[in-house]
Task: inverse folding
């Protein structure tokens, strides 16, 4: 598996719109496995998102697609600043 962990600062009140965007395309994206979104206890506007794909190739095909770029532009409008992206191979997940 392969994916990303993103740290984001969301504008206040934008959580529902974020969920909407996430739900629109996820099920039809080739190789997509899951997204988990965390809202931090210490700061309700700080989020961490974990996204997984079957493999690195599927992840990069999605990341480079025009559809994903359009989704990102919509996403970016909800954020106070650029997200921090941390891509990598998922070497352990439980349960499997």
Result:
């Amino acid at each position: 598996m392969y994916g990303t962990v993103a740290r984001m600062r969301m504008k206040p009140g934008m959580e529902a719109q974020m969920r909407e965007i996430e739900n629109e395309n996820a099920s039809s994206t080739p190789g997509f496995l899951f997204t988990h979104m965390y809202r931090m206890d210490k700061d309700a506007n700080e989020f961490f998102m974990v996204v997984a794909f079957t493999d690195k190739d599927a992840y990069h095909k999605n990341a480079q697609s025009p559809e994903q770029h359009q989704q990102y532009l919509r996403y970016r409008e909800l954020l106070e600043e650029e997200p921090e992206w941390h891509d990598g191979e998922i070497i352990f997940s439980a349960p499997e």
Notes: The mean pLDDT is 93. Strands lie at 2-9, 32-39, 46-53, 84-89. The chain has one domain: 2-85.
